Amino acid sequence: MKRFSGGDESRVVAVWLWLTAALVFAMIVVGGATRLTGSGLSITEWKPIMGALPPMSPADWAEAFEKYRAIPQYEQINAGMTLGEFKGIFWWEWAHRLLGRLIGVVFALPFIVFLVLRRIPRRLIGRCAVLLALGGLQGLIGWWMVTSGLSERVDVAPERLATHLGLALLILMGLIWTGLEAWNGEDRSRHPVGWSRGAAVLLAAIFVQCLLGGLVAGAKAGLIYTDWPMMNGAWLAPVDWSRGGLAFLHDQSLVQFNHRMTAYGLLLGGTIYAVQAWRWRLAEGLGAAAFVLMTALWLQAALGVATLMQAVPLGLGVLHQAGAAVVLTVATVNLWLVRRSQPRLFMSGPRSRGL
Predict the structure, then answer these.
(1) What average pLDDT does the segment 172-177 reach?
(2) Is 170 exposed, middle or buried (0-12, 13-18, 19+ CB in 10 A)?
């Protein structure tokens, strides 16, 4: 495949950004496991520095357990839980938070070093600074999410969970894109606007679908209507509209319905996109990227159906969340490749103008 280059590149910076992206991907996977095991509320305090250390003595464990026993989740769902069982959920949440701290260190320290050594291309310094700020904001949003389940609810608010997941995915996309920019140098070509627009719309739709998946997870909508393609024998199960617009965030039937319908739309759009890429015989690599994206979409949809019909077991649930991050990654790379393609690489004629 043709290497895109225009100077102003740094491959060591690209590797650093992709390593951080791999850690963010791991964070998303561990976050999914934390949610599915009901572990997210096991640590009831936010201590960015001191919280890196787990309880170190029986007294520390007893104190942490006592704080957990004071929240509604314990009283209404886990009453009678033993200290050993509490440790099981505690370690998931602690690992999730520790991984977040690790990502901060892995990103922030090399960023400072690269700045001092002037290894980061000047045009990417601002982008890296924004990614660092978003990482800090993610910690705050994570705690904002947790607080929604500490007083009146027995779990976190779905819209806050979707926000937390969405920002993690945005950071993942930003790291991958900026890494590609650092590896290949500045783009000095004209962009094939039409085709680029289609790839961008597809990426945006996949991101929206990930947010809808976050709402499904937050509302525990995957635990009801586990038949497919119908929902308890109907295309749309009864919706409680008494809460008005909040039904789109909290009503289990509507949330699951929206996630299903968007998936169907993505399958159709992704398939059309890949077929058109083949018909127009795009530059080497671009048609392949389109078909990889289409394949990822179909595999993720099949995994989603299997996860739903099995009532979201831990393994399938984690795999489905990881699959969402993989699909989004493929779509991000696909858009970057399309935007970096030279217009002359496309077939001439009316069909080359794009989507």
Answers:
(1) 97
(2) middle
Q: How far is Cα 256 from Cα 158, in angstroms, rounded to an integer?
A: 13
Strand partners, 277: none
Dihedral sign computed on CA atoms, order 134, 138, 144, 148: positive
Other CB atoms within 10 Å distance of the CB of residue 45: 11
Report the distance separating Cα 18 and Cα 24, nearest Å: 10
pTM score, whole prediction: 0.89
At 299-351, the pLDDT tens digits run: 999 999 999 999 999 999 999 999 999 999 999 999 998 888 754 444 444 44
Residues 309 and 286: beta-carbon distance below 8 Å: no
Q: How far apart are CA 289 and CA 292, in angstroms?
A: 5
Average pLDDT in the chain: 88
Query: Looking at 43-52, 187-196, 342-351, which range is the least confident one?
Result: 342-351
Query: Alpha-carbon distance 96 to 40, whole Å?
Result: 9
Q: What is the pLDDT of residues 261-271, one digit of tens each?
A: 999 999 999 99
What are the C-alpha distances in Å from 84 to residues 34, 54, 64, 92, 267?
A: 17, 15, 12, 13, 44
- The C-alpha atoms of residue 51 and residue 216 are separated, in whole angstroms, by 30
Amino acid letter, residue 281: R
Sign of torsion over alpha carbons 223, 226, 228, 230: negative
> Could you give the CA distance from residue 164 to residue 218 in angstroms, rounded to a whole number?
11
What amino acid is encoded at 208 in this protein?
V
Cα–Cα distance, 332 to 140 (Å, whole number) = 26
Rg, C-alpha atoms of the chain: 22
Distances (CA, A) of 192 to 159, 204, 344: 36, 18, 9
